Amino acid sequence: MMDSPNGRDEWNLLQWIFLQNRSLFAEYATRLGSCHYDESDASALEYGIRQSDYESDVWFDYMFVGDNVLELSFALDVGTDVLFVRCKANPTLLVQLQTLAHFLGFEGLQMKAEI
Q: Please, which residues have CB within 8 angstroms of residue 4's CB and are 6 or more apart in sequence?
């Protein structure tokens, strides 16, 4: 299957983040993507992530909407504090999300959810 020119048709693995940073990642990602994020999204992520398993290739896919559409997918490395993240996004947003995931992969990183 060919990649689409906007990158929206293929899952792109961002890398992993620490599980404790999942809410920060989702909040920042939705802000960068001009999407809506609220408590119902946070609750859905909490539930869905618990059902995922990276080793078994069981991912939790979630779509955020707003001015744009952002699709994120998560898989927990069961038994660790690692959460793998992938997304469907345009190339510009993809680079921003890869950078965000890179920083949220550092243990003990504390960030305020303000942009």
A: 10
pTM: 0.79
Q: Which residues lie closer than 8 Å to 92 by C-beta, 6 or more apart?
A: none
Q: Which residue has the tokens 């744009």?
A: 68
d(CA 43, CA 111): 20
Give which of 2, 68, 82, 73 is closest to 37, Cα–Cα. Answer: 68
Q: Which residues contact 110 (CB under 8 A, 6 or more apart)?
A: none
How confident is the model at residue 37, as a pLDDT? 93
Place of tokens 């550092």: 106
Q: Which residues contact 39 (CB under 8 A, 6 or more apart)?
A: none
Q: Give the domain ranges of the chain.
A: 12-103
Q: Please write the tens of the pLDDT for every residue from 32-59.
A: 999 999 999 999 999 999 999 999 999 9
